[in-house]
Amino acid sequence: xxxxxxxxxxxxxxxxxxxxxxxxxxxxxxxxxxxxxxxxxxxxxxxxxxxxxxxxxxxxxxxxxxxxxxxxxxxxxxxxxxxxxxxxxxxxxxxxxxxxxxxxxxxxxxxxxxxxxxxxxxxxxxxxxxxxxxxxxxxxxxxxxxxxxxxxx
Length: 153
Fold this sequence. Notes:
Helix content is 12%, strand content 46%. The chain is mainly β.
């Protein structure tokens, strides 16, 4: 599969899919030791792949558990990075209730030993850096609602 990550006009353009996995009042977040922020499970959309299929594939690759029902809650146009490594990313964000077989304790992502998944309280999103910053807005999307946001960093 070929990921949609293209050098274009002096920046990198990509399409990403991520999962907002919720269990009660907690969100599953990926972390890397020393990085200083969290990010959501997910990855690059591949050519000829739809966003929901990508979310299910990425979830299975990272956790080894089948995904629950995925509900699209957000689309993000994200512009970020320093001038010499500028990125333009289109992201599709799906909400999912945590499958019961998902561990309560932190665990290593199956396809990247440097990344750990851990639960953080939803109330901490206001003070803990989790990227994209639109996470809290997407979590508040009602049933049948899809939010479209733009972030420029």
